[in-house]
């Protein structure tokens, strides 16, 4: 069956370090992969989208990679700040069909001063 | 520009009661979605509407019905609530109707408890 896995354990890092979050998938051939941020009690907020033919995408301190051979995406936050503390969700979509996303359960990131 | 709004924010129901969750967007988006989010699980799609006048089932549609009232509004109805429907419900919208290459904009959520 189709499956998306994100680390269920929280990731704790020190301020200023690079946070790296992982999204693995099986039995999917996604054409698009999106990352969202979710703060407690709020709805997810879109961060980045990467297409299957793109290896890497950057936006300010954020970087996403997409390896269709490994079936994995990595999400990096450089020079992390306590304000980056949140849950990060990855979501996949296949080409064709409607704009339906399949979400992972998310990884909670805690950045400590 | 309010984005995606949802009402109510919180609701407690007894088993068997019915209710409608309201969602509206002011971004002129074509597609709208209803998700539920349970602890330890990803957002799961209940129903979606690719355009005004169309709706389709997502991953977990049982026990729910939807109405795309117009381009702005997409409501979710629980006809006979069950404890298994205790969850946080999110409405979302996006510009495009196909492909997965459009970001989705989410509302603040409705926290529903069924006793």
Polypeptide structure, described:
- The complex is a heterodimer of chains A (113) and B (115).
- Chain A has 113 residues and is mainly beta.
- Chain A has strands at 3-6, 11-14, 19-26, 32-38, 45-51, 56-59, 62-67, 72-77, 86-93, 102-103, 107-112.
- In chain A, 0% of the residues lie in helices and 55% in strands.
- In chain A, the strands form 2 sheets. In chain A, strands 2, 4, 5, 9, 10 and 11 form a 6-stranded mixed β-sheet that branches.
- Chain B has strands at 4-7, 10-13, 19-25, 31-37, 44-49, 56-57, 64-68, 74-78, 87-94, 105-106, 110-114.
- In chain B, strands 2, 4, 5, 6, 9, 10 and 11 form a 7-stranded mixed β-sheet that branches.
- At the A-B interface, strand 5, strand 9 and strand 10 of A face strand 4, strand 5, strand 9 and strand 10 of B.
